[in-house]
Automatic annotation (TrEMBL):
Descriptive protein name: Fibronectin type-III domain-containing protein
Membrane topology: Single-pass type I membrane protein
Lineage top rank: taxon: Eukaryota
Protein family membership: Belongs to the type I cytokine receptor family. Type 1 subfamily.
Native species: Latimeria chalumnae (Coelacanth)
Domain Fibronectin type-III: 141-242
Keyword Disulfide bond listed: yes
Length: 337
């Protein structure tokens, strides 16, 4: 049985609604007064609604052209393939209604209804109206809408709270509701913003601009079927301007001073420091002899260098005595031996 109910939940809604049609304009019908001895006009089933998926109510109207004597109404209904039965309660939902209590309400079953109007001159029956209770659930609006203004440091947030409709028993688990929250600034009357679909009974809103009044409202519907309820009553919340705390102001001031200091050092002191260093410690010039190519000193032979240096006054090229070197080497060898 549980598996069957689960499969029925997955199926698309099965609602079959016939539109009410006014009486056909036969020439003789529109020229008689209300006491002309005609049967009543065809009634019209206007709709059905369940507040909580446990009971439901259907209502009808007398038709577009009520005529003849006062009519009596009888609502007949059938569930699935079962034989037709008469309305169990004509007074529970008001005049021209039929109330189905818990004993006469079944979900995932097709109800088909019609209403017959009778007087002493005849009768007239409405079109058939078919429904599934699971699809006509339209709960009452949520109740006890309230709010809390929270402050954390220099920031404000608004916690909006509400309760389920008093006509719905959500604690039993027979029906689960979801919610939609709307809010707007009072200065922007047509700019509603939405938060949904919500399963909790509260929502905290952050980063709302201060200095204005906000308007909140909420509605609900069954989780997987049915219709949205009407909107709840609104609540108005004034959100003050967010003041900058002393600590935040001091921190910003310190950061600004440090930034300016670093920029000053980078743009002025560093370039001046390089010039000051060059003044105190001038660069040492490289040694340079006028008239001598430095490349020749690096790569030239010794005789070429001597030829150039002899042009300078007092320069005497060194004399190398190969014999003396040989004697030195020989003496060194004899001494070691």
């Amino acid at each position: 049985m549980c598996a069957w109910l689960y499969l029925m939940q997955l199926l698309p809604p099965k609602v079959f609604r016939s539109q009410c049609r006014p009486p056909e304009p036969s020439g003789a019908l529109f020229f008689f007064s209300s006491n002309s001895g005609l049967p009543p006009a065809r009634p019209c089933i206007d709709g059905c609604r369940s507040l909580n998926q446990e009971t439901f109510t259907c209502w009808w109207s007398a038709g577009d052209n009520e005529r003849g004597s006062k009519a009596n109404y009888t609502l007949m209904y059938s569930v699935g393939e079962a034989p037709g039965r008469e309305c169990p309660n004509y007074v529970g939902g008001g005049a021209q209604t039929c109330f189905f209590d818990e004993a006469h309400t079944q979900v995932w079953e097709i109800y088909c209804l019609n209403v017959t109007a009778r007087n002493e001159f005849g009768s007239n029956t409405s079109d058939e109206f078919c429904l599934d209770v699971i699809d006509i659930v339209k709960p009452d609006p949520p109740s006890h809408l309230s709010w809390q203004l929270n402050k954390e440091g220099s920031r404000h947030s608004v916690l909006v709270l509400w309760r389920p409709p008093e006509t719905v028993d959500v604690e039993s688990g027979w029906i689960t509701l979801v919610y939609e929250l709307q809010f707007k600034r009072k200065s922007e009357p047509d700019n509603w913003r939405e938060k949904g679909v919500l399963r909790e009974l509260q929502l905290e809103l952050f980063d709302l601009a201060g200095g204005d009044t906000y308007i909140f409202r909420v509605r609900c519907k069954p989780n997987k079927s049915g219709s949205w309820s009407e909107w709840s009553e609104t609540v108005h919340v004034f959100l003050p301007l967010q003041r900058i705390s002393d600590n935040t102001l001091l921190a910003g001031l310190i950061v600004g001073v440090i930034t300016v200091a670093f920029l000053t050092i980078g743009l002025t002191i560093v370039p001046l420091g390089k010039r000051f260093k060059n003044t105190i410690f001038p660069p040492i010039p490289k040694p340079r002899i006028s008239g001598i190519d430095s490349n020749l000193l690096k790569k030239g032979r010794i005789d070429e260098i001597n030829n150039i240096l002899t042009s300078f006054h007092g320069y005497v090229p060194p004399q190398y005595n190969e014999q003396s070197w040989e004697d030195f080497v020989l003496v060194g060898v004899d001494d070691t031996t």
